[in-house]
Amino acid sequence: MQVYVGDDAPGAVVDFTVTQGDSQALLSWKAPEVGKYGGTFDPASITGYVITRSDGTTSETIAQPASATTYADTPGFGTYTYSIYAENNVGKGTEVSADPIIVKPADWILMVTDEVVIESGKTYKFYDVSGPDAYYPNSRNDTLTIRPENPDGLVHVAFKSFETDTWGDYLYIFNGASVESPAIGQYTSSSLPSELESIESTSDDGALTFVFVSDIMSRYEGWEADVTVTDKKQNDLVGGSLEGDLYPAAQSEASYTFQVMNKGINAVAAADYAVKLFDGAGNLLGEKPGVDIESMQSVEFTLTFTPTEAGDYQIYAEVEYAADNDADNNRSATLSISVLAEGSQFVSVGDHSESVLVTPVSFMSGESLSETIYFKDEIGIPGGQLKSLTYPLVSVGTAYANVPVQIWVTETELENLEETSIPASEMTLVYDGTTSIATDDSEWVFPLSTPYNYKGGNLVVLVYKRSAGSTSYDVNFRGTYGATTDPKRSRYTSTFDDSEVLDPEAVPLGYSAGTLWPDVKLLFTDVTSGMTQVVRPAAVRAYPNPVSGILHIDGDGLSQIELYNCAGQRVYVSGPVTSIDMTACPAGIYYLKMVTDEGVSEVKKIVKN
């Protein structure tokens, strides 16, 4: 047993707290009430206090008088740990510490696990955890919710800069007060994605939730954003996105969807508003009456019109609502469309939600080559002039300008590329130039400088990209990795050394074939011109023409008969026959393809009454 007799040093201070002020750490405490070792202690004996501030690397002590019970420290932006002890003539008292605290301006919001409530009428700065002038740290996994103080407010965030490691660091954003709320998106980029320039909550609680995850690899500067509260108006219908057919055919109905959201406090009755579709000159193309819409509810309208002539046009949709307190947000963004001439057709091969990084090109490397077979059954038309190739995108985090690209195409009887590939010299060069890709692009479009005369076979596409320094992991194309049982229809290779040059003549291309391939959209004009036509008067006849019932076919040496509608869809196929019953076929234009024993095709235009 130890017994202490006489005066004692101070014990621990009471109720030591450190809270966040405006660029300050606010410390408070009460004087010790007992001695350090259980001996005689009189609080009046305290001669002063010693505060220690540590940033994890260096420490500094701050002396305070015996009468002090608070202290406001202004060490500059950073994370600090504070400790304190009292002392008297006997000696140093017991030291106690508080949890680490971030010292920052009051209008800063940092990406840490927290919930922040913000006021209307103020602008806050939102940074990664390291603030504006340092790289964010590795191995972070933080969740931050930002709420409006006003229950009728909506959090609005406008990013000004954004840079993360595109290999493994992501910012996730959710529309509401938790990660269970609907996801707005996930972002990783070496430049500011256009989608982050303006994000506003549409949740009933008006909140946004952010999750930032960084791996153990590279670190970057992070981001800076302005955060404000948008106070709801009494009446406010907002026009959102306008989406639909970018390449409608002339004389055919085109359909577009228009999102309308009620961001006002009041519900809006169907009779009080309408939605309309206009061309760039303000001419009305179509309209729909409104529907009842509650506060913070979204409604999707389908608007249609029939373009009359081929050409490039701009269209937009708008809400007409007389009681709207903010008519400036009633219109959609302008949508550019290209109306195709009659007889043109877009063919989409693949409709996948997967992301592929290395094909049709790789932006992870300076140069890349890929070759893919698109099967004739997937294309589904007898032939035509191939005018453009379009690759759908999942996301673009980093924009690139003036990217040199060459594209070759041909047709093949190959069903896979396991044993070989087709060199560029045996294909048709259809595109040779530079192109750009932007963060708000949803498609990568290549208008072909040399149209290709497609004849209805398996289409092979070889894409060669040359762009030193394009080494980001955030350009994602739509496609599929396929299944192990799928044909190995593609090959690809790439370089990570800017001095290395790839060879589009290499056979076989890359190390091996695979089931990975990108989705593609193919624009064909004159969907029958791709078929080889041999004129042999009186050798083959199809009559009567026009026809309303039985179409008779006369000809020697025929091996196959095919009938296509005006959209290029095959509606009939058979071996050699002498007639086709077209009674049930809808009226219109048809194309009769007759193949001889020698493989020669003849095509006749048939009119069905």
Automatic annotation (TrEMBL):
InterPro entries associated with the record: CUB_dom, FN3_dom, FN3_sf, Ig-like_fold, Secre_tail, Sperma_CUB_dom_sf
Keyword set, alphabetical order: Disulfide bond
Fibronectin type-III domain ranges (all copies): 9-106
Keyword match Disulfide bond: yes
One Pfam family cited in the UniProt record for this chain: Por_Secre_tail
Signal peptide limits: none
Database matches in NCBIfam families: Por_Secre_tail
Protein name, per record: Fibronectin type-III domain-containing protein
